[in-house]
């Protein structure tokens, strides 16, 4: 009986260690990862839409070249940034940046790719926020494949110099 108890305790400890390791690995995968996304010069971008949800106001900006490409039915050019500035109580809370680069989709497994777009969350001081989940961003934007992975493509088409709401 003593040997059975010792064996049972060993297997229990191994199972607990395995479960703990799996939880830790899953936790690591749920956070942002360093990637190729850079924080752009905001003064070079065009504010084309604002989305309001309760206390949250999101101002979304991109390059003039991206707006022109969408309006002409062309692909968004490589090097393009889209920035969602997330305001809470009229103060910047965080930035969500998506950037497109030639071949950048190859940095990820095929099931995670959203064309050549990569995503990153930044804190108000514009440093990367590794507590945010970029895998979730990719999964969500994958549903917008027909609009170049952009949720606001329609608003880009409607933009005529004043932010579309």
Overall description:
With 165 residues, the protein is of the alpha+beta class. 30% of the residues lie in helices and 24% in strands. The chain has a single domain, classed as Cytochrome P460 (Chalcone isomerase), CATH 3.50.70.20. A 5-stranded antiparallel sheet has the order 1-2-3-4-5. Strand 3 and strand 4 form a beta hairpin. The longest helix is centred in the N-terminal third of the chain and has 28 residues.
List the helices and strands and how they pair.
Blueprint: H1 2-29, E1 46-53, E2 56-62, H2 64-71, E3 81-88, E4 91-100, E5 117-122, H3 134-141, H4 153-158
Antiparallel strand pairs: 1-2, 2-3, 3-4, 4-5
What labels describe this entry?
165 residues, alpha+beta, Chalcone isomerase, 4 helices, 30% helix
Structural class, by secondary structure, is alpha+beta
The figure for the number of domains is: 1
> What's the CATH superfamily, by name?
Cytochrome P460
Strand content: 15-25%
The spatial strand order of the largest sheet comes to 1-2-3-4-5
Please give the CATH architecture. 3-Layer(bba) Sandwich
| CATH structural class | Alpha Beta
Q: Identify low-pLDDT runs.
A: 7-30
Report mean pLDDT, rounded to a whole number: 83
Extended strand count: 5
Q: What percentage of residues falls in helices of 4 or more residues?
A: 25-40%
In the CATH hierarchy, the third-tier topology is known as Chalcone isomerase
Shape: globular
Q: H/E series, N to C?
A: HEEHEEEHH
How large is the count of helical segments? 4
Q: How can the largest sheet be summarized?
A: 5 strands, antiparallel
Distance between the termini: 73 Å
For the CA atoms, what is the radius of gyration? 21 Å
């Amino acid at each position: 009986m003593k040997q059975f108890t010792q064996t049972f305790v060993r297997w229990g400890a191994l199972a607990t260690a395995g479960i703990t390791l799996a939880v830790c690995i899953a936790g690591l995968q749920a956070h942002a990862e360093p990637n190729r996304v850079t924080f752009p010069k905001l003064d070079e971008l065009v504010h084309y839409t604002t989305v309001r949800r309760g206390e949250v106001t999101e101002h979304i900006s991109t390059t003039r070249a991206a707006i022109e490409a969408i309006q002409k039915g062309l692909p968004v050019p490589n090097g393009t940034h889209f920035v969602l500035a997330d305001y809470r109580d009229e103060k910047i809370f965080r930035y969500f940046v998506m950037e497109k680069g030639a071949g950048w989709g190859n940095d990820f497994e095929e099931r995670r790719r959203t064309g050549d777009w990569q995503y990153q969350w930044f804190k108000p001081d514009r440093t990367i926020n590794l507590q945010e989940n970029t895998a979730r961003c990719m999964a969500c934007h994958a549903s917008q494949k027909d609009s170049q992975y952009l949720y606001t493509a329609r608003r880009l088409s409607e933009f005529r110099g004043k932010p579309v709401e």
